[in-house]
Amino acid sequence: MPRGDDKLSGQTTPTINDVAALAGVSKKTVSRFINKSSLMSDATRDKVSRAIKQLGYVPNPQARALALRRNFMIAMLHDNPNGQTVLNFQKGVLAAIKDSELALAVRPVDRTSPELLVEIEAFLSMQRPLGVLILPPISERDDIVDLCKRLDIAYMRIGSTALDDPAHCVASNDRAVVHELTTALLAKGHRDIGFVRGPEGFRSPVEREAGFRDAFADSGVTLDESLIGQGNYRFDSGLEAGRALLGRKNRPSAIFASNDEMASGVLHAAYSFGLSVPDDLEVVGFDDTATASHVWPTLTTVHWPIEEMGRLAAMKLVSEFLGGTTDEFDLDQVVVDSYIVERASARLT
Amino acid sequence: MPRGDDKLSGQTTPTINDVAALAGVSKKTVSRFINKSSLMSDATRDKVSRAIKQLGYVPNPQARALALRRNFMIAMLHDNPNGQTVLNFQKGVLAAIKDSELALAVRPVDRTSPELLVEIEAFLSMQRPLGVLILPPISERDDIVDLCKRLDIAYMRIGSTALDDPAHCVASNDRAVVHELTTALLAKGHRDIGFVRGPEGFRSPVEREAGFRDAFADSGVTLDESLIGQGNYRFDSGLEAGRALLGRKNRPSAIFASNDEMASGVLHAAYSFGLSVPDDLEVVGFDDTATASHVWPTLTTVHWPIEEMGRLAAMKLVSEFLGGTTDEFDLDQVVVDSYIVERASARLT
DNA sequence: TTGTAAGCGTTATCAG
DNA sequence: CTGATAACGCTTACAA
């Protein structure tokens, strides 16, 4: 019983040998067809193609993996506190590889672990994925990227700004869109706008804050530094920063929280002060996760195109392995635009 | 250059042959050690173990996959509209396989697609995972399970009630805990309690509604059928059902929404009627997703132990491949208990 | 343009 | 209990 016989039906899964025999060519020729080699006569190509169709042959990824020293999967590496973000990104990636033979392996890591690099190396050299998608914030770490290079594994870094050359990153334009939203608040007449910053040590909080400051500078309005509070992207930190800002004598008339979860905390802070949103206070967030439309009032926020970024990143990463279908999109595209979503917590018009 | 030489360092990744040579045994013996065969003398076992440690040898999963016709990964099959649920489950699974050599492949499917089974078969026979974790609601489908059996792939069904024999399922006790929570509302004096049902055609909504009805029956209170509204587990349906219930002449004094997202919709409905929660209306949900603590007021709900279920399911699924570490938990455990989480939207004491 | 032979790194068979 | 030998299904030299 040499090959993968099907227990119940007695059918045998066709292998490259069966195809070769039926087409009357060598297995190497079939292999060439599978790998889309250009060195084939149209006649043979046709014969092989017909035989494959007739047998319903599907190349065995495990065998290819062994021969090619490369598994037919892509990996998602992340240490992201926000589940919704990871999930939305994952959705985009899966959409991109839906019709391919690729699998998606998800690998959460702990960025605070001293074993981080060792663990990632173990994972990568074990699974040997075709490529790795690295999510923020660990996408900012050069040591992880160096590891990928050393292991000769393709990688794609995701970030709030371009973190690498166009072949290796996908980014959103956080700074520009925060600038836009802040400018809209200023144009409405707000002068005392609070800002809740994200965690220190990462890039996206820096970008978002920079956009906020840019808007003040460009509008010629002086920014009151004491209205900038520190958060860490979690709900509780938004609640706390919101309480601090709203407890001041001259409380702000609007608060920009640099993500939705903190914005949701700010809403709770407003309630605890008996303030009505948006009448007494306008609140805006960033991300447009499910939270944004489930809080009361619904949150005016920035749609962070994380799903679309996942799709683009996966496309770029695997394009070389899927030759052909790459025409639909631009391999050099790096930035996926964010946009403002106006809901109830702040009216912009 | 026969083997996997490391480009930069010139080091060579050790293979089973290197181990065999160093230990002075045949590769088959090393293979026996790797596969934890009991047919080995302690002396050889020791020699091999030492050689492996010395070389830092790690078996190549691709080669094993080819020989064993089985990939070293487990797959998660789902068509779940709730991202948070999928993600929490995933967290549990990853915790279970964290220290193993296994990868987790995520596979969302479309249960409404006529190609569903074909697609799943293509995926499974391609990737040949060690096992499949099937999430609700598709875990209820026997055709998918039959497919797994035919392909000889281990499976584990997740559900709101035991869907299979103990070796093949993990379940929560939705009916019992809804009974408990409803009883608590009745004990507080509520008589007109609205209920927002989940989508038709699935098991968990049936279980949750049954628990609700049980409580009325056991408490000897007559249930007003017109207070039972239909939802579909989405926010909007909760909003709509909530509006319908609250627009009645004799509006309910409490509403049990069968998941948090719909409960959140009910809260919005209450606001739109100018009702204050929990003073004018008490609201409870089910799931205890992040939403529950981010809405205002925070939601009294049932903690659905989806993460723990993921952990248990993965443990049970892979226990046979990871011999040894299985002592810590009970392989026959099926039910993971849910429990009530009291927050602000309903006070139970 | 095509085919032959020799791997890829592991496990199964079956004899010792 | 151990080991030679032949798979597993595909790809990469290297010829032809």
UniProtKB/TrEMBL annotation, chains A, B:
Provide the alphabetized UniProt keywords. DNA-binding, Transcription, Transcription regulation
Q: Which InterPro entries match?
A: HTH_LacI, LacI/GalR-like_sensor, Lambda_DNA-bd_dom_sf, Peripla_BP_I
Chain ranges of the HTH lacI-type domain? 14-68
The molecular function GO annotations come to:
DNA-binding transcription factor activity; transcription cis-regulatory region binding
List the CDD domains hit by this protein, alphabetically: HTH_LacI, PBP1_SalR
Q: Does the keyword Transcription apply?
A: yes
Q: Which PANTHER family match?
A: LACI-RELATED TRANSCRIPTIONAL REPRESSOR, LACTOSE OPERON REPRESSOR
Source domain of life: Bacteria
**What is the name listed in the Swiss-Prot or TrEMBL entry for this protein?**
LacI family DNA-binding transcriptional regulator
